[in-house]
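USER:
Working in pairs, take the chain set out below, taking as long as you need, and write a paragraph about the fold.
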Amino acid sequence: MASLGAVVIFDELLYKPGGQVHRWMTLLCEHFEGHAQRSAPTRSGALRAGIWSHAEPFGVKQMRGTIASEAEHTMYVLRGTGYPVRGRGGQIFARRVWAAGGDPESAYTTLWGYRDPQTGTFSRKKIAGVRREQHVVRKKGFFMKFGPDEYGPKVISPVVSGQEPNNFLFEAWRLTGRTHPSIRGLAPTASIAEF
């Protein structure tokens, strides 16, 4: 016959590195990080490269898991780049066009002058053999310049289309909940943006 007189469990050890709760939280963070990296849109790779996770104990019997995306454009991807920045995708205006009420026509003006037939540039100075006429010209400082780069040719515009919100972190949370039933139906707390 065997008799067990007492069982003493030091459950604080479960939360320390190597303990069962610590290992579980680390695994949860690793799965969340992997799902976030796969769910993140990729263009330059900076968004995926900036995603990391960390599990750490705090207090006596508490664990905290952190997932973060440190790319500078993370919030523009999560919330979209419409106008206003939060919400559905809309248009992004150059600063001076925005200050002029968001009217792209405010980026142009009509001036009397000459257009060089060889270069196509406008000048207010007389060009021999060219008639003086009214021309629609761009105002300085009212335009954004993009490219040329691997994504397309050079673009000079007072307004560009914004992108729709893509909350890849929430999608990663949902995917993580499939293999970790303890977080199903719960919403993560976010320090920067609400999910």
